[in-house]
Amino acid sequence: MNSNNPDPHYREHLQAVAEALKALKTPLYIVTHVDPDGDAIGSSLGLARALKALGKEVIWIAEPPRYLRFLARDQELHPALQRVPEGATLLVLDSAEPGRVTGAPVEGRVINLDHHGTNPRFGDLWVVDPSKSATAQIVKDLIDLLGVRWTPEIATPVLTGLITDTGNFAFANTTPEVLHTAAELVGYGVELAELTDRLRWRPPEYFRALGQVMETVRFHFGGLLVTAHLPAGLEVEDSDDFVGQIRYAEGAQIAVFLRERPEGVKLSIRSRGGVSAQAVAVSLGGGGHVPAAGATLRAMGLEAAYLRLLPAVEAELRKAGYWAD
Ligand code: 5GP
Ligand code: MN
Question: Which of 66, 139, 198, 268 has its CA 20 to 30 A from that of 239?
């Protein structure tokens, strides 16, 4: 299964997960996706804290990137597992596919909470609802069902997921539901101004690289596509949001940022106006949401990656009616 439609059985699926978690007497390992973003870290850490408050044995396994590290306390960080111990449960959040999960192998009893349309609905129990703005929204509903008392420590990471996945409540997924939820979470004592400020901090090398990255900006298809890349040899922590800067090029329906990695070239794809970043990502072996998706082009360099990318974007621009000859 693979669909962008809301889950008509959302409440029942969530209830089943809540019951399974309440009944749990064995350790629960909580993991998320590689290159974790604010929703991955926020939804998983918020749920881990809520379940600990319920008295569950919870081990949160994640490596937050530098800009999200402040959310977690040192003693909350646990190293990756080679195997999931016999009898334990693995809870996977915000992970579009099992292959994107990091921190533990996807084995044993698996619970999958996610909002990516491309999620194949893996696991023994799952709640996958692409109409939710963030996995953090699913976690918010789940924590309510579990009846855990909200504290700023639980609400802050959950709100982080909503803030980052909606681009500070600006993207098309900023529904009335997400705004209501955010208001509720702020009411539980989150320091909103401090949180949004802190989430935007980037290391000095990010700003030193910014000029060089902007020099790589190119327009294709008469400006419908804007691209940029991290020049070879430059290493920048927290480079994810360069795509967030170029996506505002006037006239661009799609923006792609490319970064060389040991395994290949990582693409961050954003789109608007009926063009699907998801469709482009899927055609290149990746996945994600309609307006924000990604893929890794394995075993190739930047030049080859551009050569793969351009026809994939062209096909989507044609399909969406923006490009014809
Ligand atoms: P980003 O460009 O920020 O890394 O990713 C944008 C969205 O696409 C995120 O929701 C992310 O989980 C998803 N995504 C990124 N890369 C991949 C990929 O290689 N495969 C899949 N299935 N999803 C991806
Ligand atoms: Mn997400």
Answer: 139
* Distance (Å) from CA 324 to ligand 2 centroid: 33
3-state DSSP of 134-200: CHHHHHHHHHHHHCCCCCHHHHHHHHHHHHHHCCCCCCCCCCHHHHHHHHHHHHCCCCHHHHHHHHC
* Confidence (pLDDT) at 238: 86
Residue nearest to atom 15 of ligand 1 (CA): 294
Domain extent at residue 152: 10-198
Residue spans of the chain under pLDDT 70: 1
Question: Per the structure, how many domains does the chain have?
Answer: 2
Is residue 279 a part of any domain in this protein?
Answer: yes
Which residue has its alpha carbon closest to ligand 1 atom 16? 294
Query: Under DSSP, is residue 83 helix (H, G, I), strand (E, B) or coil?
Result: coil
Q: 153 with 221, same domain?
A: no
Asked if the structure places residue 324 within a domain, the reply is no
pLDDT of res. 3: 85
Q: Are 125 and 20 in contact (CB under 8 A)?
A: yes
Pocket test for ligand 1, best of 113, 133, 268 (most atoms within 8 A of CB): 268
Contact yes or no for 321/285 (Cβ under 8 A):
no
- Does residue 90 form part of some domain? yes
Residue with CA at minimum distance from ligand 1 atom 7 = 293
Residue 1 has a pLDDT of 60
User: Three-state DSSP class for 287?
Assistant: strand
